[in-house]
Design goal:
The complex is a heterodimer of chains A (249) and B (441).
Chain A: E1 2-11, E2 14-24, E3 29-33, H1 40-48, E4 53-62, E5 65-66, H2 72-78, E6 80-83, E7 90-94, H3 95-109, H4 117-130, H5 136-139, E8 141-142, H6 148-162, E9 166-170, H7 178-191, E10 197-201, H8 206-210, E11 215-220, E12 223-228, H9 230-239, H10 242-248
Chain B: H1 2-9, H2 21-32, H3 50-54, E1 59-60, H4 69-77, E2 86-91, E3 94-95, E4 108-112, H5 118-127, H6 138-145, E5 151-155, E6 165-171, E7 178-188, E8 193-202, E9 209-219, E10 224-232, E11 238-247, E12 252-260, E13 265-273, E14 279-287, E15 293-302, E16 308-317, E17 322-331, E18 339-348, E19 354-363, E20 369-377, H7 381-388, H8 394-410, H9 416-440
Parallel strand pairs in B: 1-7, 2-6, 5-7, 6-8, 7-9, 8-10, 9-11, 10-12, 11-13, 12-14, 13-15, 14-16, 15-17, 16-18, 17-19, 18-20
Antiparallel strand pairs in B: 2-3, 4-5
Classes of the chains: A alpha/beta (249), B alpha/beta (441).
Chain lengths: 249, 441
């Protein structure tokens, strides 16, 4: 589904990713861990095409397409979704309008009929319930005045409505209390199937107690320095990142 | 430029009720002695009047045939669904009974100056020209000197009028560029309540009119007025004018302004708090694009203690357009315990767009709470990226963000039906802009 080869990327002239390789098959869940500044979030933004994140070498194929040649909106339509670590507040644009515009575009792209407002409203309300957000959040401005946890649940809600092929969750677990964490995890688990894949970017092993990854990777200085199964996460929890970094050098 | 001063004086209308002649004479002498502003005139520093002179708007407005196709088409366009208002329509300054509609509401007197009875004339005479200062605002002087008719709205003591009054001033092009005058006088007696929507519109043809519009709002003690002034004119229609309000004790004015562009649009909004406890909410949106120029000068005079003002103006300036915002709050020595706040936010959507914003606080009392601020920014790249990352095309995302920027004000209008009326108009404007940018690229 996603194949990253020798990816190098710079942000504001500073090289953050330095030859990253990663292959993700359909239906797989990959966890990416690593110390602050190792390039975890950068990877997410490079894949979704954020301005100012410049790819200097390497290639990325997603769903058989050259991902790096696509604009951010095209990447999304191809089935890539990034749950932001810091979702943006957009006062004046209602969450409902935002979600409907996004879903309409996605349905058109997939050759499906666009839902009328009533059917969409119904669907949105159901998803709201699934992520335990009050329906009033649909009427409010996008993320406007939402708490940290509410923003993360709003991200999850968008992912559920857009049904991507690959969901990248950038520290979606950070700042969540245990109840919210379980809720987010069960939301993601409910979306898992043989075709849909996930990349979980996280600092904490805790999330992986609830979402069992197929692979765990450790990012260090812009490359993957170690890959393994879920036991690697436990090992990291035990020993920290230091021993890997010294190995990597 | 001085040509315009002299030539404008030739345009004094032939017929008018006698009682107006005094007003006209005062305006005439005031206008005659004024000199055209230069770059050194602080109030006109960023707004040039060249377009006015070059356009030679020296023809008189003519009465139009209400059954012409241009006007029939406009009829639907100006109707605000859900407002359920009494509608008064003027075309090129002339009242059009054919286009007007709605019942006469018993609680509200609405009459043309030319048709006012003796008692009404008395009331008009005692208020007209007492709020708008012709010596300070030179185009008010010109309006006075051209005065031949106007709309008088009168709400008697403690009367509450629930049906809004919707006054529409339409323009359609004439053979030669022409000038027209608009005048409105609203007198709200003590404890009365009403809503007045001033609406300027024109057909789609390129306009060649110069409108000089002056509205005076008089709010007696405890009166409440909800006022809108919507400028939805075609972009070549010139407009210089103002809204001048005087608030007595505990009066409340809620005034909303919308300015779509023209090559020259200048509006002075002046509110005088002359009684204790008066309150004013003043909000506005200006959206110049192409090579348009919009200038809003607001001035709140806090003359008496315990008055409050909350003012928010937002602008989106695109293409080569230019906006000027000057928001002045003047706290007089006697105006203790004033609470006043002024916010101005601007969004520039092109490298060539320009805004000159100047919030001004002038405080002569020592126990007041005042805040002001102005910002100028571009569309937030990160927000754009966020929307795009959900599959929304960049152009569409730009429209959503621009709309969102002004929706905060539109969503808070006292009459939601007006918001519903304006949203598609403004949304269409932004969408159009995006298509044009695409084409240019």
């Amino acid at each position: 589904m996603l194949s990253i080869k020798n990816l190098h990327a710079t942000v504001e002239g500073k090289e953050i990713l330095r030859g990253l390789d990663l292959d993700i098959g359909a239906g797989e869940v990959h966890a990416i861990m690593g110390p602050n500044g190792s390039g975890k979030s950068t990877l997410g933004h490079v894949l979704t095409g954020r301005q100012g994140y410049e790819v200097t070498a390497g290639e990325v194929t997603f769903m058989g397409q050259d991902l790096l040649a696509l604009a951010p909106e095209e990447r999304a339509l191809t089935g890539l979704f990034l749950a932001f670590q810091y979702p943006v507040e957009i006062p004046g644009v209602s969450n409902m309008e935002f979600l409907k515009t996004a879903v309409d575009g996605m349905r058109k792209h997939r050759g499906l009929e666009v839902l009328d407002s009533v059917s969409f409203m119904k669907q949105a309300r159901e998803v709201c319930k699934r992520v335990d957000l009050d329906q009033n959040f649909l009427k409010r401005g996008v993320n406007e005045g939402f708490s940290g946890g509410e923003k993360k649940r709003n991200e999850l809600m968008q992912m559920m409505l857009l049904e991507p092929h690959l969901g990248i969750l950038d520290e979606t677990d950070s700042g969540l209390d245990i109840d919210a964490l379980q809720l987010v995890a069960s939301g993601i688990n409910s979306m898992r199937d043989s075709k849909r894949s996930f990349i979980l970017i996280t600092h904490y092993q805790r999330l992986l107690d609830f979402i069992e990854p197929d692979h765990v990777h450790v990012l260090g200085a812009g490359r993957i320095v170690r890959s393994g199964d879920k036991s690697l996460a436990l090992e990291l929890e035990d020993k920290g990142y230091g021993w890997l970094e010294s190995e990597a050098v | 430029m001085s040509d315009f001063i002299a030539e404008a004086l030739q345009m004094v209308p032939a017929e008018a009720p006698d009682w107006l002649s005094e007003q006209r004479r005062r305006g005439w002498s005031s206008w005659k002695s004024s000199s055209m502003p230069t770059r050194k005139t602080e109030d006109w520093k960023y707004t040039r009047l060249r377009a006015l002179e070059e356009g030679a708007y020296l023809d008189r407005a003519e009465c139009q045939d209400p059954s012409s196709p241009a006007l029939t088409a406009l009829r639907d366009q100006i109707h605000i669904t859900g407002l359920d208002a009494r509608m008064l329509v003027f075309v090129n300054g002339f009242y059009s009974p054919e286009l007007s509609s709605g019942e006469v509401v018993g609680n509200m007197e609405v009459v043309l100056f030319s048709e006012a009875d003796e008692t009404q004339v008395e009331t008009i005479r005692s208020h007209l020209g007492t709020v708008a200062d012709r010596d300070k605002y030179m185009f008010t002087a010109l309006n006075d000197s051209w005065l031949d008719d106007g709309v008088f709205v009168h709400v008697k003591q403690d009367r509450k009028v629930t049906t809004p009054l919707h006054v529409v001033w339409l323009t359609v092009p004439q053979r030669e560029a022409f000038s027209l005058s608009q005048r409105l006088l609203v007198v709200m007696e003590a404890g009365s309540e009403a809503t007045v929507v001033e609406h300027f519109a024109s057909n789609e043809a390129q306009q060649n009119s110069f409108t000089n519009g002056v509205s005076e709002l008089v709010l007696a003690a405890n009166a409440r007025l909800c006022h809108y002034r919507l400028h939805l004119e075609e972009e070549h229609a010139l407009h210089i004018g103002g809204v001048h309000a005087r608030l007595d004790r505990d009066a409340r004015l809620n005034s909303f302004h919308l300015g779509l562009g023209s090559i020259l649009k200048r509006l002075d909004v002046v509110v005088r708090h002359e009684g204790e406890g008066a309150h004013c909410d003043l909000n506005g949106i200006y959206l110049p694009r192409h090579s348009q120029h919009i200038d809003y000068h607001t001035c709140i005079e806090h003359v008496r203690p315990h008055c409050t003002t909350k003012e928010v103006f937002r602008g989106i300036i695109s293409d080569n357009a230019r906006a000027v915002f000057n928001g002045r709050i003047h706290i007089h020595p006697d105006a203790q315990k004033t609470v006043a706040e002024l916010r101005n936010k601007n969004l520039l959507t092109s490298n060539k767009a320009e805004v000159d914003t100047k919030p001004e606080l002038e405080i002569y009392a020592d126990d007041v709470k005042c805040a002001h601020g102005a910002t100028v920014a571009q569309l937030d790249d990160y927000a754009l990226y966020y929307l795009c990352s959900r599959g929304i095309a960049r152009e569409h995302a730009q429209v959503m963000l621009s709309t969102g920027f002004i929706n905060e004000l539109i969503n808070n209008l006292q009459h939601p039906s007006l918001g519903e009326y304006l949203k598609p108009v403004l949304g269409g404007l932004f969408a159009q802009q995006v298509t044009q940018t695409e084409r240019a690229e």
